[in-house]
Amino acid sequence: MTDQTGQTRYRVAVIGGTGPQGKGLGYRFAKGGHDVVLGSRAAEKAEAVAAEVRERLDGTAAAGSVTGLANADAVEACDVVLLAVPYDGHDELVASLPLAGKTVISCVNPLAFDKRGAHGRVVNGGEGSAAESAQELAPDATVVGAFHNVSAVLLWGDDEFLDEDVLVVGDVVEAKQVAMDLAASVTGRVGIDGGKLRLARQLEPFTAVLISINRKYKTHAGLRITGLDAPH
Amino acid sequence: MTDQTGQTRYRVAVIGGTGPQGKGLGYRFAKGGHDVVLGSRAAEKAEAVAAEVRERLDGTAAAGSVTGLANADAVEACDVVLLAVPYDGHDELVASLPLAGKTVISCVNPLAFDKRGAHGRVVNGGEGSAAESAQELAPDATVVGAFHNVSAVLLWGDDEFLDEDVLVVGDVVEAKQVAMDLAASVTGRVGIDGGKLRLARQLEPFTAVLISINRKYKTHAGLRITGLDAPH
């Protein structure tokens, strides 16, 4: 479905929609005119957070709808599914969802923390990533990786757009385009095609570097790619 | 040694100084007022490239010196050593150099290429990086990681500074500061402290993402960190 401006209007299920990353991305997508269904284990919790997002959007011209459902029902209601869940329990949750035929966007970051700070967790002996695991667990879905590096604080903050780029990786161009389109709601410009799905191995743990910078410089660091003319 | 502006003037051995990354970084360091000794397996080859860099710098006010020596002699002549060598043969070369007591900066990228493009090579089962390998092989040196993501083409190009940030990782603050200072010769501002040395696992293969972007968008992509006031 396209709106009056010609922008494709997506209907996005946000799994983990009551967590800070999912809620923040859901808010931005709806603010950008997409319809959002926040998913949670319990429908009531999802609906309560959806009400909070709707209140935040009140008065925003052309905002999309925001509702809340249990995770599997949210997936059933949408063509696009954003996985915004913690890495712990990720595989079991993904395997339980009816993802066949869906465009699935993973922003899952397999990170670990110790007294030396954040660092990447090793997935599949270094030859895997959360996004690739999701693709293996849902072979009839099309999985891309994106939105790994955006700050939940800034997503829920007051800036019109985040001063960052969204890198999108995947093996299917059309599925990458969905995430690149959605990125415009977050950053004000389409996302950047960062290559094949296996490069999620690089995007996911890069968040550990940004967390280190945040700690050192007391900021919310983001990533921009230089050398590209806007709009890409 | 400090120059008249108060900037620390380093004496940097560039191992792999005849390759595009080493030559380009050596050029930029010397342009910024640091003294550079390009190293190569054969002193004559190093001296030939040094002459080329000197010619390029001719007339540049306050440029540092550029000379060429065999790798081990270059190391002996300097306090700071930049490892700008291919990952193939990296470990053997590092083990052969007299690095004890030196500040060693690794910009080595363990990458592999196949018909799907560039991707990161798995070092030590996913729990290692070229920089960490160098630290293990030279336990009496202090190794940091930096300059992984800068384009050799842009380094040798005509822009006064590159529109990128240099991320520096390491476990010793003073050693990171050396690389952060040197970064100013490349980007016009000091580098960014990106955290502990183990995060080189993230910086090194991120270059594969930039290579993918370069291929897709026909550019020389770079990385900037947002959310930091300049100067850092």
UniProtKB/TrEMBL annotation, chains A, B:
A GO-annotated cellular component: plasma membrane
Single biological process term from Gene Ontology: copper ion import
One protein family per Pfam: F420_oxidored
GO MF terms here are: coenzyme F420 binding; cupric reductase (NADH) activity; ferric-chelate reductase (NADPH) activity; NADP binding; oxidoreductase activity, acting on NAD(P)H
Q: What protein name does the entry list? A: Pyrroline-5-carboxylate reductase catalytic N-terminal domain-containing protein
Domain Pyrroline-5-carboxylate reductase catalytic N-terminal stretches: 11-110
Q: Which domain of life is it from?
A: Bacteria
Cleaved signal peptide residues: none
Q: Which InterPro entries match?
A: NAD(P)-bd_dom_sf, NpdG, P5C_Rdtase_cat_N, STEAP_metalloreductase
| Biological source species | Nocardioides thalensis
Q: Is the keyword Membrane in the record?
A: no
Is-annotated flag, keyword Oxidoreductase? yes
Keywords on record? Oxidoreductase
